[in-house]
Amino acid sequence: MPEPLLRVEDLRTYFATEEGVVRAVDGISFEMYPGERRGVVGESGSGKSVTAMSIMRLIEPPAGNIVTGQIVFQGTNLLELPEDEMQRIRGGKIAMIFQDPMTALNPVYTIGDQLMETIMLHQKVGRAEAREIAIKALEDVQIPNAEQRLGDYPHQFSGGMRQRVMIAMGLSCNPDLLIADEPTTALDVTTQAQIMDLMLNLAEERGTAVMLITHDLGVVAGFCDTVQVMYAGGIVESGTADDIFHNPQHPYTWGLLASMTRLDDARKHRLHSIPGAPPSLIRLPEGCRFRPRCEFAVDVCRQILPVLSPVGDDGRLVACHRAEELDLKTLEVDAASSPQVDADPAEGVSA
Fold first, then answer.
1. Cβ(209)–Cβ(5) under 8 Å?
2. Beta bridge partners of 37
3. Which of 282, 276, 281 is closest to 347 using CA atoms?
4. What is the DSSP string of 86-128?
5. How many helices (H) and strands (E) does the chain have?
């Protein structure tokens, strides 16, 4: 195996609020390798975006703090770097595409000024050369009349075009890792597909590793090599995309997949839904954090928080006490006959 491009160890990112400490990311560890496409999935509030912001070191104290852990990128712990060195990595070696390009782009500067600022900062070139690189970057993301559009402002672009600009900005300095945080949330389905194809094809041409944060499991199935499933600030399952989609081993992963429509299944049945809601990150339940919503929980789930551990010989990691005994891939999905789960987060469920 090659050396990991990125290694995150026991990362904990907490936010102080008037009600208490929000444990947004609570002890996660994972590795990414050069050229890897990793999908990070989970419900809102599971810690996906905070993980990305922590890697970029965009968590600002005193409200938010990375309290423990290591983020080792190309052999260097980013948490130990002074801010000026981190700025050279941020945008140059690690780039990020945010959910809403209208808020990520500065409305009072032209697209060209914003692109060229990034290029001049990280590539150490003059303004004339930066302009040529910016034009090529816009052409790469298929923006017509790229040279003329350098002088336009963000509001003069459509949502899809603004997202193309963000991709051009992210890839203009040929980063080794691209983090895309819900890059197609505000776009229509057709434009979503175009943007995803464009971003991932460009990343593949340049050998860039991609961390794709999304709610869309269909996108993950089509574009990602590996999948990381997050719930309540922790990772509950990770493995190859094929393994996760064809043989989920955590009840939460099974619940997410069972809630999707299947084009390859001619049978008519009601879609499954995961009962209840994710727990408060201030007052997490005892034992397994998914237990109050789990249809397969037993007594041990109430008492002990499961640790992310290897299951089988394929590199799968699962945080579930029953992962070895449950065969979720053979489970028939029928929401009408699913066991009822007590939505009270203080109560557990017996199998």
1. yes
2. 210
3. 276
4. HHHHBTTTEEEE-S-HHHHS-TTS-HHHHHHHHHHHHH---HH
5. 12, 12
Q: What is the pLDDT of residue 186?
A: 66
Q: Which residues contact 55 (CB under 8 A, 6 or more apart)?
A: 6, 8, 71, 73, 78, 94, 179
State both tokens at 65. Answer: 């703090």
Under DSSP, is residue 310 helix (H, G, I), strand (E, B) or coil? strand
Mean pLDDT of the chain: 87
Q: Is the pTM of this model over 0.70?
A: yes
Predicted pLDDT of residue 101 = 76
- Sign, CA dihedral 146-148-149-150, equals positive
- According to the model, what pLDDT value does residue 264 have? 59
| Cα–Cα distance, 161 to 211 (Å, whole number) | 21
Residues 7 and 70: beta-carbon distance below 8 Å: yes
Q: How large is the C-alpha radius of gyration of the chain?
A: 21
Note the pLDDT tens digit of each residue in 158-167: 888 888 898 8
